[in-house]
Amino acid sequence: MATVDIAPVKKPFRWHILVFLAPAALIYTAVMIFPLISTLYQAFFSQKWEFVGFGNFMQLFTDPRLSASFWNALINNVWFFIIHMLVQNPIGILLAALLSNPRLRLRGFYRTVFFIPTILSFVIVGFVWKLILSPTWGVTSGLLKSVGLGWLFQPWLGKEEYALTTLALISNWQFIGIPMMLIYAALLSIPDEVLEAAECDGITGWSQFWKIQLPLVLPAIGIVSILTFVGNFNAFDLVYAAQGAQAGPNFSTDLLGTLLYRTFFGYQLQLGDRAMGSTVAAVMFLIILAGVCVYLFGIQTRLRRYQF
Amino acid sequence: MSKATHSPLRSIAAHAILLTYTVIALFPVFVIIINSFKSKKAIFGAPLSLPLGDAFSLIGYETVFKRGDFLLYFQNSLMVTVASLVLVLLFGAMAAFALSEYRFRLNTLTGLYLALGIMIPIRLGTVAILQLMVASGLVNTLWALILVYTAQGLPLSIFILSEFMRTVSDDLKNAGRIDGMSEYRIFFRLVLPLVRPAMATVAVFTMIPIWNDLWFPLILAPSEATKTVTLGAQMFIGQFQTDWNGVLSALALAILPVLILYLIFSRQLIRGITSGAVK
Predict the structure, then answer these.
(1) Which 85-124 residues of chain B touch chain A by CB within 8 A?
(2) Is A128 on the interface with B (CB under 8 A)?
(3) Are B31 and A139 inside 8 Å of each other by CB?
(4) Residue B183: which of A16, A34, A278 has the nearest Cβ?
(5) Looking at the domain assignment, is residue A8 inside a domain?
(6) CB contact under 8 A, A128 and B116
(7) Of A17, B62, B150, B274, which has the most beta carbons under 10 Å away?
(8) Residue from B56, B207, B205 nearest A178 by CA
(9) Do residue B121 and residue A289 have CB atoms under 8 angstroms apart?
(10) pLDDT at residue B278 in the model
(11) pLDDT tens, residue by residue, A237-261
């Protein structure tokens, strides 16, 4: 080159940095980022590769047949998420609060047990609950009868009005270990001096939990909420394992994930549609992105973090 | 400390809640396992009794071993999980080391780029991933799954490992440099052994979703020769829906290995999740 480089020390190119980064960056880019971008890109093309702009999206939102199943899946998914926020996370916080008491016996035992459902696969969880709630087998109805509540029993997974909520509760059962552990970890990281100071001021028991511990673990609750959001809006396996790709009865348990699967691969008489599959995936991407942005810019920055 | 936190009444209440939840968490697993050892009559006659005397039967397990190729599925799952795990840990640690050790242009940007995948699920790229695997002839091979799971596991592992690598003392690495060690030797000989506990944590986190995944085996490798345990169990159960002995035994077989592994590694897993918090 004509320009003279007069930098005092000309470092040689540090090849080792490239060597360390390359394998991870290559696989990640080729198998994750590139397909994601490509899928988003394909959402703007028809099945025959003609550019259609937002045509696919318009069709997904307004076409009588397609939009009905899309809005159904979206509303179901929102309900699925609400149940997780109302049942799974509060129970997780309660269990974590009870476990964080250092004088509690059997802590290790409880912790281990509560996490067991989380390690099981969706296939196992789906079928186990399907069998247990099955009216043919009668485990649940038998149990309810033995405590005099036999009239309460319904084939919950088989009824349109209950199936989605039942599945959401099953999913809560499976994943309660995650909020419990993360909040438990946050509770443990509160220094003893803070709690002792509170006790000196006469703040103990539940009021200590509400006034001292809960505000301090809000960042962990924020993380749990966004993890729940991302996990729920991309859920598929549990519905597929328990109710099949048709998300029965009568699509009442259809989520965006199962809709994506059916749209892309087809089912029964309907053929798979790559373009529409990409469109559904793109919509899911935007929903998740929106959720993550709300968390990062709206929630996380407002939560006060305390350095101890 | 004060009386309020110490009263036996409070402690009894706490144990009552925790024990109730223990029953809720374990009951389904317990019911499946005891019934998998029973005859059909006993399964329906007394679902909650233990498999003793007449009720005991292994007929379900016989069906599973005769009709399903679970040994092969198990082997497939094991190969996919172990291979992905090795790649995630090796490549993840290398990238984490580069990001935490060296200052170079684009460092922050590369870090952010690699962290994107923590929040965005790889599943959303399925349409193009399938096209990619078809184009490269990897459909219905275990390699397709290994590549996808490696890509899926890398972001979180890089994130966690680079946090840990920042804590490795600079003096140690500089001493190595003065002794004339290459950067590669510093990484493999000095840094890797020191972050082993973090690697174990990442390993557990990476392993569970890979072993349990249904979506990618269903889409990328559904052939008989490449089925994983999760997919194999799903299909077996779908086919033998009315054979309760078979279904219950297949479920028990799918639960037991994971349960045993978990009980062995639970300390590690829990320590990983609560790491930094437990002082």
Answers:
(1) 87, 90-92, 94-95, 97-99, 102, 104, 110, 113-114, 116-117, 119-124
(2) yes
(3) yes
(4) A16
(5) no
(6) no
(7) B150
(8) B205
(9) no
(10) 37
(11) 899 988 888 887 889 999 999 999 9
pLDDT tens digits, one per residue of B8-38: 888 888 899 999 999 999 998 898 888 888 8
Which chain A positions have a beta carbon within 8 Å of B45's beta carbon?
Answer: none
Closest CA to A190 of A163, A219, A157, A155: A219
Range of A233's domain? Answer: 64-123+155-300
**Per the domain annotation, does A283 fall within a domain?**
yes
Question: Which stretches in chain B have pLDDT values below 70?
Answer: 1-6, 272-279
Is A105 within the bounds of a domain?
yes
Number of separate helices (H) and strands (E) present in chain A: 17, 2
Query: Cβ contacts (< 8 Å) between A23 and chain B: which residues?
Result: 90-91, 94-95
Which residue from B183, B254, B277 is facing A121, i.e. has the nearest CB? Answer: B254
> Using alpha carbons only, what angle is made at residue B18 by residues B15 and B20, rounded to the nearest 5 degrees?
105
The predicted-structure confidence for B173-191, as pLDDT tens digits, reads as follows: 999 999 999 999 999 999 9
Own/partner pairs, A164-169, CB within 8 angstroms, 24+ separation: A164/A76, A164/A79, A164/A80, A164/A252, A164/A253, A165/A79, A165/A83, A166/A133, A167/A80, A167/A238, A167/A239, A167/A242, A167/A243, A167/A253, A168/A79, A168/A80, A168/A83, A168/A84, A168/A87, A169/A83, A169/A87
State pLDDT tens for residues B47-76.
Answer: 777 888 777 888 888 888 887 788 898 899
CATH number of the domain at A261, please: 1.10.3720.10
Share of chain A above pLDDT 90, in %: 41
Domains of chain B: 8-57 (no CATH), 68-273 (1.10.3720.10)
CB-based contact, A197 to chain B, within 8 Å: no
CB contact under 8 A, A27 and B98: no
The partner residue sitting opposite A204, judged by closest CB among B2, B90, B211, is B2
Cβ contact (<8 Å) for B277 and A241?
A: no
Mean pLDDT, all residues of chain B: 86
What does residue B39 show for φ and ψ, rounded to 5 degrees? -75, 165
Q: How far is Cα B60 from Cα B45, in angstroms, rounded to an integer?
A: 17
Q: What angle do CA B228, B196, B211 make, to 5 degrees?
A: 10
- Confirm whether the ipTM is greater than 0.90: no
Query: Cβ of A290 under 8 Å from any chain B Cβ?
Result: no
Nearest CA in chain A to B215: A237
User: Is residue A165 included in any domain, yes or no?
Assistant: yes
* Number of domain units in chain A: 1
- Give the nearest chain A residue to B36 (CA atoms): A128
pLDDT grade, residue A131 (50/70/90)?
confident
Q: Which of B88, B124, B148, B273 to mutate to test the interface with A (most CBs of A within 10 A)?
A: B124
Of A98, A124, A139, the CB nearest to B251: A124
